[in-house]
Amino acid sequence: MNLKFRQGILIKRISIAVISILALTAQPVNAADPLPNAFFNHLGSKYLANPGVIFIDSSNESVLYEQSSKSLRPPASVIKLVSTTAIAMTLDSSTVFKTAIYQGDRPGAFIIVGENDPWITSSTRSRDRFKRAYLPALLNAALKQRNNLKVISVQYSGVSSSDINYARKVMRKTSSIKARPYPGKIDTSTITGEKIAEITSPKLSTLIRFTNLYSDNNLSQKLAQLAAIRNGFPGNKSGINLVFQNKLAELGVNTAGMYLEDASGLSQQNRISAATVSQLLLKIRSEPKLNVVYNSLPVSGISGTLANRYQKSAPDAIGLVKAKTGSIKNTVALAGYATSGSTEYVFVVIANQTGRTRGSQDAARGAIDKMLGSITKPPVIPATTTTDTSTVSN
Fold first, then answer.
1. Is residue 16 predicted with pLDDT exceeding 90?
2. Range of the domain at 81
3. For burial by CB atoms within 10 Å, which of 26, 93, 213, 320 has the most?
């Protein structure tokens, strides 16, 4: 055996040893059921490019794996978990929101009193497709009852100026509506004119489900504004940040560095860490008030924004992942829960260097789905025992 041949064998042995060591160190420390190599292979996809990642065993809250989990990143629509948590911690899930129109103190004058209904719209498409509360219906009812007036004035409270202006635009072909905010808060018991019409939203639980299931940006923003207002904060960006900090602190979630430009996730300036999101997910699973948020999440290959995922990328994981999706320019994110037999993982993946093309972002989503597919297993259903309740007569 010549020297070069022996050196070659030695180099190969060293290389194998180094690879083995790297594989071992890549596994989470003290994990009873280590994450498989396939998990790390997909995590290493070039389309994910150093994401913020954390995986937790929810049964004992032990961290199985984390990577850049405390770095602050724009999370895209994953931020809707925070928005829906804030409103679920503020109001009962059975709450409904009413908006009514009253006759004013003179003909052609009306008063609209609302409860900041997040479900309200002036879009006929949203009205017809999703049965949204339709604001122009109130105005039309007033016009019709008052001999189809063409010019009216409206004072309003508990309805946003943007919603009022949108309704005015919708109706401008048939009528001219002058509108201004009511000075101060309206006590409906002091209104002497009759109530002409009223619209009511579905229960808050339905609104939360719609927000997370279909990632509705406008609804998420409105829910956050409502949470801020109901907690005594202004319904603007400052108030939204305050109520988010307040409600997450109430749950014991560390919000270090968290800052939000909006509550929809559209802004590139939003900042939150994967670690903060993971702590929130653990609370969503354990806090009874937040069961409504957990139940609102899309399911892999079955519902909402996950309905068309996993079908090809990880078919064995269909029905086993329950998570909030997120996607904006250069960012793909997914945060939620993955079932692996008797274990439920809490996970967060926020990748901010995916590129902006549809192809690169789809590849990033595929890598995340395959990564989760490498660890999911059907749930373990406990065996049931039957008891013979028959009696024997003598």
1. no
2. 31-91+206-373
3. 320
Among the three residues 177, 202, 227, which one is the final residue of a domain in this structure? 202
Please say whether the beta carbons of 139 and 163 come within 8 A.
Answer: no
Q: Tell me if 281 is assigned to some domain.
A: yes
Averaged pLDDT score across all residues of the chain? 88
Query: Could you tell me if 232 and 83 lie in one domain?
Result: yes
- Has residue 24 been placed in a domain? no
Last residue in a domain, options 187, 202, 217: 202
User: pTM score > 0.70 for this model?
Assistant: yes
Rounded distance between C-alpha atoms, residue 84 and residue 82, angstroms:
6
Residues 175 and 226 in one domain: no
Residue closest to 86 by CA, chosen among 202, 216, 295, 239: 239
For residues 72, 76, 82, 83, the Cα torsion angle rounded to the nearest 10 degrees is 140
Cβ atoms 330, 366 nearer than 8 A: no
Number of domains making up the chain: 2
| SS3 labels along the chain | CCHHHHHHHHHHHHHHHHHHHHHHHHCCCCCCCCCCHHHHHHHCCCCCCCCEEEEEECCCCEEEEEECCCCEECCHHHHHHHHHHHHHCCCCCCCCCEEEEEECCCCCEEEEEECCCCCEECCHHHHHHHCCEEHHHHHHHHHHHCCCCCEEEEEEECCCHHHHHHHHHHHCCCCEEEEEECCCCCCHHHCCCCEEEEEECCCHHHHHHHHHHHCCHHHHHHHHHHHHHHCCCCCCHHHHHHHHHHHHHHCCCCCCCCECCCCCCCCCCCEEEHHHHHHHHHHHHHCHHHHHHHCCCCECCCCHHHCCCCCCCCHHHCCCEEEEEEEECCEEEEEEEEEECCEEEEEEEEECCCCCCHHHHHHHHHHHHHHHHCCCECCCCCCCCCCCCCCCCC
Indicate if the pLDDT at residue 4 is higher than 60: no
pLDDT, tens digit, for every residue of 265-278?
999 999 999 999 99
